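Slide 14.
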Amino acid sequence: MENETQHILTLTNREHLSISGINDVDAFNEQEIIAICDTGELIIKGELLHIEELSVDSKILTVTGKISSLAYNEKLTQSSLIKRLFGG
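Slide 15: predicted structure.
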């Protein structure tokens, strides 16, 4: 756990989301963004979502749009990742 970056979310007027502690973005479109943090996936849902900034070095993700929900999935294990990739 000591290698984990502090994970902070700031949501302003449901239109501007800034998140620290993001390692990568797995998938995105205008309705959903799947961000990867140390503890698993963060699923951001809404309308007209746009990634303003993604910095892997500073682990910052900034999203604009009409944000309707934020949800976490548990940390993926290697076997669950393989199942997702190959439909198993």
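Speaker note: The radius of gyration is 13 Å.
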